[in-house]
Specification:
alpha/beta, TIM Barrel, four-stranded antiparallel β-sheet, Enolase-like_C_sf, magnesium, hydro-lyase activity
């Protein structure tokens, strides 16, 4: 089976301004639907949210050159070619990898996680917030998420130590011991602030402490991990791909590795990262925040590994589900069940895609890749 075409469509942004800590400005999220079309009539899809229109448009000539005429089962070779042997993955190359796996699964009428080798058929979920200006907003949303079935909840709070301590105390008091809680200040603190917050999180029995300081401060992460009993999670912002992760593991800079599959190399790179972590006896907890198909890509990897506890779902529920027939939802026991449809397991709604289409992306006159 050969690839016969590659297309990309700019979709309308969600009617929501996203931010994940106080100092950031709210931002609109851009969505691009990548289609890799096979000669068997199937299409592999990925809806990106970390790729700009210009970046995708600029890359289309190169993608067409590399992909058209190739067998999608050559996903490993293709991913190497598009990411400089995994040394320089991008949001575009990651989206291609995800869409290729979707196409392969549809060709074989099998969910991707089963092609990877199923380890389980459900994963426990946690609700992952956006930033809110008031402490009570986090409390109210936690209670709402608990009513939906979640028993784990992660706060993207203010990114200011004293304010974050206040909101963490308030949420813990509101939910009692009915929910596991996590905090992600998005690399906001200095070392002193991280120690201060970390000790309070231990007192409040939080499940993990994510991205407390910049991931570039490996010595600081080592100190935190050695000094705190709570699990310290990090390395999510490392953009150089798989080859930059070992130092976090071998130096015990984190208790668990985070990873954003949609810019570190897609499903292929996540599976390798998980295997590396497993060899060192630590968890690989991918950041699955994003569009439904981005969530699905991470979820399929989670279903094919043992060293991952939780799948991350954006809340309020549905804020990134545009253009979909199927979505990831928590069940009454706090888990997300494995998909049964082939490929990524979650189907786009072509009628809805038509309604939210802004334009088809085309090769630009001044594309830096033209003629390559």
């Amino acid at each position: 089976m050969k690839i016969i075409d590659v297309r990309a469509t700019q979709l309308k942004s969600p009617d929501y301004e996203f931010k994940w800590k106080e100092e950031w400005e709210g931002r609109r999220i851009g969505l691009i639907l990548l289609r890799i079309i096979g000669e068997d009539g199937n299409e592999g899809h990925c809806i990106t949210w970390l790729v700009g229109n210009g970046q995708m448009e600029d890359s289309l000539p190169r993608l067409k050159q590399v992909l058209i005429g190739r067998d999608p089962h050559d996903v490993e070779a293709i991913s190497y070619e598009l990411s400089d042997s995994l040394a320089a993955p991008t949001g575009v190359s990651s989206a291609v990898d995800i869409a290729l796996w979707d196409l392969i699964g549809k060709h074989h009428e099998t969910p991707v996680y089963k092609l990877l080798g199923a380890a389980r058929h459900k994963v426990r979920a946690y609700a992952s917030t956006v930033y809110y200006p008031e402490v009570q907003d986090y409390v109210d949303l936690a209670l709402q998420c608990r009513d939906e079935g979640f028993n784990a909840y992660k706060l993207h709070a203010f990114g200011v130590p004293d304010k974050d301590i206040e909101v963490c105390r308030a949420v813990r008091e509101a939910v009692g011991d009915t929910m596991d809680l996590m905090l992600d200040p998005v690399n906001s603190y200095d070392r002193q602030g991280a120690f201060k917050v970390g000790r309070v999180l231990e007192e409040l029995d939080f499940y993990w402490f994510e991205a407390p300081i910049p991931d570039t401060d490996i010595d600081g992460l080592v100190d935190l991990t050695r000094s705190l009993d709570i699990q310290v999670a990090g390395a999510e912002s490392v953009m150089g791909g798989l080859k930059f992760l070992p130092q976090y593991v071998t130096r015990h800079a984190v208790d668990q590795v985070r990873g954003i599959g949609d810019f570190v190399g897609g499903i292929s790179a996540m599976k390798k990262s998980a295997a590396m972590c497993e060899a060192f006896g630590i968890n690989y907890e991918p950041h699955s925040y994003g569009s439904t198909l981005i969530q699905a890509a991470h979820f399929n990897v989670m279903l094919a590994i043992h060293n991952c506890d939780l799948v991350e779902l954006p809340v309020p529920t549905g804020i990134l589900d545009q253009g979909m027939k199927d979505t990831l939802r928590v069940n009454s026991e706090g888990f997300v069940d494995a998909p049964t449809k082939p490929g990524l397991g979650y189907e786009i709604d072509e009628d809805e895609i038509d309604k939210i289409t802004v334009r088809e992306l085309q090769v630009g006159e001044f594309s830096t890749h033209a003629g390559h």
